[in-house]
Amino acid sequence: MKFPEGFLWGGATAANQYEGGWNEGGKGWSVSDCAKAHFDTDVTNFSAHNEITSEEIQYAMEHPEDMVNYPKRHGSDFYHHYKEDIALMAEMGFKVFRMSIAWSRIYLNGDDLEPNEEGLQFYDNVFDECKKYGIEPLVTMSHYEPPLNLVLKYNCWYNRKTIDFFCKFVETICTRYKDKVKYWLTFNEVDSMIRHPYTTGGLIRDRFKDKNFEEVIFQSMHHQFVASALATKICHEIIPGSQVGCMLTKLTYYPYSCRPEDVLEMQQKMRSIYCYSDTQVFGEYPAYLLARFKNHGLNIVMEEKDLEIMKKYPVDFISFSYYMSSCVAKNTEGLDTTEGNTVTAIKNPYLPSSEWGWQIDPIGLRISLVDLYDRYRKPLFIVENGLGAKEELVPDGKGSYTVNDDYHIDYYKAHFKAMYDAIHEDGVELLGYTSWACIDLVSESTKQMSKRYGFVYVDADDYGKGTYNRYKKKSFYWYKHVIETNGECLFE
């Protein structure tokens, strides 16, 4: 009763939420450096603050010293703690570490002629530290951090020029790290541009007042699809044997009832999630997405060879985030709603919820794995999964501190068993698993440090105050045992 030989256990982070050092080492501004925390709003309501205005960006740039209202600027300070953090990952026995490269640390403005050597050297140091412990990096090329200059000067991914800027960035990092990184992801949660267009696509609604914003989003998506295919091509040519994956938000929906109207609503909702990975895996737009373009009057401009490029260079594997499931119904009147991973949906009365309203559903992970594998017949990789919770340090009896996070252990144990069943009972090919986030960081949806996911506690609060010291939680030792037994201890 073990996971397959060579299964890649590990953890995941993102530079914009974890790295810090936002204005050190020659790094330029990214969109995330202007992502403001909203302490005065309902933190469970992501949709209340998932966009940003030009005025808000201007204000953020005029206050570079503000680390309180812009918590992603400090993150968990991995920039100065990377050796300590990677050593902690090694102590847990990590086989893989999912991370991202901050584009604006390599090309400060995105359109620079030459890369920033100090930024390149930082990631050299990180990858060398991983290699020292035998940890395989899994690197996301773009994870919610386009250079801000591309937004202000070009309207970022809406402008076709961004494809060339991105490809130059990809060629630079693939060439530099060709002997250090084998596994790559192109765009984090590529589907998320429809839900938060600023962080994913660098799109600011007030800059497109004379345009259909839905069309703007899908035009930008098209440019990302072409860029992803070209990135796959570049990576394969520079790094023989490399593997390039897509990454989607696996939002799993159930019909609230067996009424055919609710079942149809669920099917349509799932199509709205799959259309992005369908395009990257099959290398062509699905008929239902083309129908949406036509029915909504969306004119997506494509150059002559775009579809040929997309078809020729699809991804090698599918990675995804899974945190929860939700329900949908044709008529939502009178039904309770709950928050989730950048969405609001109908509450499932059969599932418990986290402090932030995210419903906990390990069986939904098995369902998701089966659905994805049956659909694509390509290897899968779970690159985000976890539970955010408020926590308190307590003495560990050994002169230090810990967190008794049994809720994390219970959550992971149930989800790992669901993974095991999907592999052994359903025949799913699952390459590995990286928890979100292995070390506490700034949450994306609410910009909070107090929403803690990690096996390691970082002593910093929502306002950036604290020592930033690291403390091992109870789950740290539990996960270490899971990895060293390759999951066998789950069945003891």
What does this entry look like structurally?
Keywords: Glycosidase, Hydrolase. Belongs to the glycosyl hydrolase 1 family. The protein is α/β, with parallel strands linked by helices. The protein has one domain: Glycosidases (TIM Barrel, Alpha-Beta Barrel), CATH 3.20.20. 38% of the residues lie in helices and 14% in strands. The protein is built from 15 helices and 16 strands. It has helices at residues 15-18, 54-61, 78-92, 103-106, 117-132, 148-154, 161-176, 197-201, 213-238, 260-282, 287-295, 306-312, 362-376, 406-424, 474-484, and strands at residues 8-12, 96-100, 136-142, 183-187, 243-249, 252-255, 317-321, 325-328, 337-339, 344-346, 380-384, 394-395, 401-402, 430-436, 456-458, 470-472. An 8-stranded parallel β-barrel has the order 1-2-3-4-5-7-11-14, surrounded by 4 helices. Strand 12 and strand 13 (401-402) form a beta hairpin. The chain is globular and about 65 Å long. The relative contact order is 0.14. The model has no long low-confidence stretch (mean pLDDT 95).
Which characteristics define this entry?
492 residues, two-stranded parallel sheet, eight-stranded parallel β-barrel, 15 helices, 16 strands, GH_1_N_CS, glycosidase, GH, TIM Barrel, alpha/beta, 38% helix
